Amino acid sequence: MYRYNEVDARIVGERVAQFRDQTRRFLAGELSEEEFRPLRLMNGLYIQRHAPMLRVAIPYGHFSSHQMRKLAHIARTYDKGYAHFTTRQNVQFNWPALENVPDILAELADVEMHAIQTSGNCVRNTTTDAFAGVAADELLDPRPWCEIIRQWSTLHPEFAYLPRKFKIAVSGSLEDRAATWVHDIGLQVVRNADGEVGFRVLVGGGLGRTPVIGEQVREFLPGEHLLTYLDAVLRVYNRFGRRDNKYKARIKILVKAMTVEGFAAKVEDEWQHLKDGAATLRAQDIAHFASFFTAPAYEVLPPHPVELTAAMDAQPAFVRWLERNTRAHRQPGYRAVVLSLKKTGVPPGDITAEQMDAVAGMAERFGFGEIRAAHEQNLILPDVREQDLFALWTLAREWGFATPNIGLLTDMICCPGGDFCGLANAKSIPVAEAIQRRFDDLDYLHDLGEIDCNLSGCINACGHHHIGHIGILGVDKNGEEWYQITLGGSQGNLASLGKVIGPSFAQADIPEVFEKILGVYIARRQAGERFIETVRRIGLVPFKESVYAQHH
Amino acid sequence: MRNIIKNGQVTADEWLLLREESHLWPAQDVIVPLEVWLSARLAHSHRSAPWLAPDADIATLLPHLADLPLIAIDFPAFTDGRGYSLARLLRERYGYAGELRAIGDVLQDQLYYLHQTGFDSFAVREDRDATQALAALQDFSDGYQVTWRRAEPLFKRVF
User: Fold this and answer.
1) pLDDT given for residue B54 in this prediction
2) Stated pTM of the model
3) CB spacing of B85 vs A239 below 8 angstroms
4) CATH classification of the domain holding B50
5) What ipTM score was computed for the predicted complex, to two decimals?
6) InterPro entries per the record (chain B) (predicted)?
7) Given B80, B109, B142, which is nearest A10 (Cβ)?
């Protein structure tokens, strides 16, 4: 993984000192709330329903057991003993005291972490495939590029006060697991016909209030030009993006207003002035960043060792977990393991300090100390020997990480919702739990197969409901919490936005509505057809007819 | 006469900023709206300079850059970041070498970024202490990006 040099450490340290002084001036009344607000947001600090919330960056979801232990320490010392992993591969603490935040940032800096630009109208944490570096379908490792972007975007003097937040995702594999089509900028690492590495550049995607699938502004951008091209895109956005209405301030609105051709031409014109400038990456620069992401010291191992096969023969539950919660690895004899943070009764993405320490221990014992945070709000140990899988499963079960539901209905993406968030219109955690409880029969759950169910407590869409196969959106109707259901959304290569099936539902009715939706799927699916494929084939009408039949 | 930060120190301002589009300029150095400056500058007995709104079209200004002693860029709110891009364009693309001043909602916590993008004078909001704000120019000792102040990105300077 990337390791700070002396300058990285110095810059983060100076940022902590700067924020300590800003906090001091705010508490002393020298900075107004209005003046302090953008400053604290750019250090990840929200003022929430009950208390401040601090969002800590995990750059592209990549971190170590050492850093996880520090997060556990922070949860214990400054919070209520738990934390929450987010859909931007970050981690949130829900109960820190404002005056302690500078100390928390200093503790983070000790382990090469920070909360820089985890909120605010600036470039946010760059995200990527949680299986980057180990995925069997990977074309090129996106992580060096993510680190290049992290450095470029961190404290960029020109782009600290954009019209609105700005999110970049990078994918380097056949299957897009980074949701590049729904980001302000989506970068797909590709090789051109001559074998050169570069990017297909998508711009103007996003969820939130106005969900949009991004559009291609450049088919192939040679890798060396990445930063000058990003500067050009951001400069056009910074200068011409709307600032009069925060709901029309994202780059997607600018791209629509200019048309994608018009926007691309404007960027191209800007870029002609910046191209080949000092920020152009030389081969040795790219090699330097790549040198941090070399493979760990894998052993040469035979696939299917006896430790694995014997356990599979003895334990059907282990087999189910293997199928659902582990992934193929580039290295024979290894698998990537997903630790589920979607146990029924636990808010999706939540983890206690003791569990965090346990994950760190598992990573050290079984996986070179490496951990990934997935945007689906699970954790991943990327490099586990097949011969260790049974021992890891046994530990994961003890700690509540072994629910064999990855990719299934109960592996829901879910924002903190009205229980915590000041923006939410409705609670999301109890709805997720009600669905998990209704579909707790593992045989049925597995029979239903892969279903992305995403839940947001408000239109800001932190729970990515638009790209859930089934999406749930909390809405406010005359002060009551109601839930709108969408079907047909999808992330990945066939990214699509779900469509609302009809009038919204009361919280208590949601499990029943799900029963009906899934009943239609069971009745109508063809052999081997996944839920989303059935929805695409038969359309929404059969689902609407079933769900709304008894209401008339 | 108010205090401003210029070339790294607090100093008395020689210029009078005229916010309104008036053509009645007092007999001293004035900073006036761009459109007014373009039409009336030649009749003035003292020095004059334009201030730019964040959405200003700078094309009309380009023929004059070599002769201008000062250009001011307005920040109607400190959260409006357009002026940073304008500054870089004037400095880096069009080679403007005179004084570049930030006016409007100019506060301590933005000074470092403003300085990086090419500003060298700062009319810190009058209800704030310019001397206290001055220290913010040293908030960071280095940075990752190419800016007007840093010709090379960090990755070319540090391995």
Assistant:
1) 98
2) 0.95
3) yes
4) 3.20.20.70
5) 0.97
6) UCP030820
7) B142
